[in-house]
Specification:
This protein has 147 residues and is mostly helical. It is built from six helices and no strands.
């Protein structure tokens, strides 16, 4: 009997076509949604792997720079911060293979804090130490006065 009822429902080919079309369309929408969700999950997982790898590379690079700065600090402390001159620091920096040890670094340098009252004496000593065009550059002018 149930086959008779089903047969009546699908007597017209148009009705059968509409049912098949509706089932196909709804199946397609469902599958598209599932695939979109899966693609987003895969993309998020891949992004996480790339982000973690990049973070580790950056940490490694920064650690290498930190070791280099500690080496420079050791060189300055060995000679004495008041006796290190441009030539001695140059000899130290030339002993390092910057391109291999510190990729991306453009050089090694030293920054000294100079009180405003000592500027002229500091400039005279720096210019006499092989840098006649030496000038003081500040990242934040008058920083010492704000303290």
């Amino acid at each position: 009997m149930s086959s008779v009822r089903v047969g009546r429902w699908f007597r017209r080919p148009v009705q059968l076509a509409l049912v098949v079309l509706a089932l196909g369309a709804s199946s397609t929408v469902l599958l598209v949604l599932l695939q979109t969700h899966q693609n987003a999950s895969v993309a998020a997982a891949r992004f996480e792997v790339v982000a973690q790898t990049t973070a580790e590379l950056v940490k490694g690079r920064l650690a290498a720079y930190a070791y280099g700065l500690r080496g420079a600090r050791g060189a300055v402390l060995t000679v004495g911060h008041d006796r290190i001159d441009r030539d001695r620091f140059r000899v130290y920096s030339e002993s390092r293979d910057l391109a291999r040890e510190f990729p991306g670094a453009r050089g090694v340098g030293m920054i000294r804090r100079v009180a405003v009252s000592d500027e002229s004496g500091f400039l005279s000593r720096a210019r006499a130490d092989g840098a006649p065009d030496f000038a003081i550059r500040q990242r934040q002018p008058d920083f010492a006065r704000k303290l």
